Amino acid sequence: MSFRLTKYRMVFHFLWDRKRALLLLFFCLVGQALLSIVEPWPLQAVFDYLLLNKPIPEVIAKHSFVADHLLGLMIIAMVLIALLMGLALFGQNLCLVKLKQQVVKGLRVKVFGHVLELPIAYFKKLGSGEVLSRITADTDNIQAIVEGGAILVFRSFPTFFGILCVMLLLDYPFAVVVACIAPVLAVVTYYFSDRIKQYSKYKRFQESRIMAVAETAARTLKCLKILGLKNQELHRFEQFCDASNEASKKAGMYEGAYGGAVNVLLSLGTAIVVLLGVVRIREGHITPGELLVFMGYFRSMYKPVREFTKYLGKISKASASYDRITEVLEITPCDLGVCEAIDAVDAPPFSREIQFDRVCFCYDKDRKVLHEVSFTVRKGEKVAIVGESGAGKSTILNLIPRFFDPTSGRILLDGVDIKNFKIISLRKQIAVVPQEHIIFHASVFENIALGCPDRKVCESEVIMAAKKANAHEFIMRLPHGYDTILGPGGVELSGGQAKRLHIARALLRDAPILLLDEPTSGLDPYAESQVMEAFDRLMEHRTIIMVSHYLPLIANSDTIVVIEGGQVVELGQHGELLRRKGVYYNFWRRQLARAVPGYY
């Protein structure tokens, strides 16, 4: 089994934070190893010196009290060893719980923090189910490395080699024969460990796919029901479950074969010990009591081997999970195309313009989204980006805060390429109202206050932002007002309410650049009027770049950028573009015909 110490340095780092528990665990496990070595000797004394009347060794005979009360003292010794062993086991379990939870928590926080640093492309590539699986299930599996590693290193190995040394001192040839089992076990272990790890890793992959299907189904349940897709999704879910089960069966098969091979070897070893022991007694090399010690030691040696067998599968599975975790942690934003320059500086306050200069972008080599896109947005302007679905409109918005970076070309902020700025300083100047409803599992107050994460927001600021966003009234009707918990397990908001909460968050952020992605989609007329009134307040004194099909927003824009096939095909104001009777004219006619049937 591959267990390079440097590979698991992260685990050691988190363990080191609990030095006292780690030290106590060390003493408990080493203590158990020492107790296992001395455990059979009281029985040997009783058997040889009391039952078989063998001469008591001089070192014991010269102490008359010990010689006279040997039986009672040996019984006390056996009881004391059992009590100390129980106490050590209790301490071991207590320390292991603390240490395992420390490692799981540390890894989860580290992986989650790193994932949040990665570009959006990572989530698009891997999928939410796979990401969740690595943050939760894979980190939980690492407990086996802590438990198995500690027990094997501090108890099993010291017990095995300590007993072997004592056996060598007692009877060298006898000990050598018994020890010959160890190399055979090592070969068997090496053969099975990689196969167990391989199938365990594949099983974890399939479980992440199962989680992705379940998560998607929960999120799109209405759609599944209305389209009658239950059977299709169930079939897909069942396929991934079957693949996971098959991998689990393969791993279980190898684990079972390994356990069986170990049992055969140990049974063979027991037979050899008995046979050789009888021969050595007849030859006068050992006493019957010492044979009992050898038998006890062989059982004690059997325990470390059994533990090794037990933890082999668990550590192999945990190692597969650890590999999946390190895969995430080794990915950098640069690997995904969004890299912060070493000499990046803080972005100065936005003062003049945002310029797209021959920007091209593609998600992969065979899928070009934008081609030679160029336009300028001056400070205080409202720019609408229009076009058919899939034309690349939302991609343009995603490039400004550097969720993605252009494949070629530049985006300039006041004449400077945004790649020259620190990402966090660039994003501080941007507020986003997305198309989807992003509500955090937190109170209403916290959901709005998240617009300003760098400072403590007072209650009056949040309430003022909510009032400007036309959200205060519906918030006060919620069960606990601003303290009402939203999201899963809490109160669910309507589309219009969620949108107004987004606007309140953006108002509180008070960023000079505002990005709007289909801000009125999916709203009923009343909610739309409430939201539009809030948008009017939000857009005051700000630079607006928006993607929208909402006619009043488009028509009132200072500039309209028309995208078709990933390219800018028209650019100008509403009236000017209508007079050209080109792409925008046809787009406007279609939109107006939908809004006012029979108009054209």
TrEMBL record:
Domain ABC transporter: 354-590
Gene Ontology cellular component terms for the protein in this record: plasma membrane
TM stretches of this protein: 69-90, 152-170, 176-193, 257-279
Main location: membrane
Domain ABC transmembrane type-1, first and last residues per copy: 23-317
Tree of life domain: Bacteria
Location within or outside the cell: Cell membrane
Topology class, membrane: Multi-pass membrane protein
Coiled coil stretches, renumbered: none
InterPro entries assigned: AAA+_ATPase (IPR003593), ABC1_TM_dom (IPR011527), ABC1_TM_sf (IPR036640), ABC_transporter-like_ATP-bd (IPR003439), P-loop_NTPase (IPR027417), Type_1_exporter (IPR039421)
Entries under Gene3D superfamilies matching the protein: ABC transporter type 1, transmembrane domain, P-loop containing nucleotide triphosphate hydrolases
Keyword terms, alphabetized: ATP-binding, Cell membrane, Membrane, Nucleotide-binding, Transmembrane, Transmembrane helix, Transport
GO terms, molecular function: ABC-type transporter activity; ATP binding; ATP hydrolysis activity; ATPase-coupled lipid transmembrane transporter activity
Stated name of the protein: ABC transporter ATP-binding protein
Source organism per UniProt: Thermodesulforhabdus norvegica
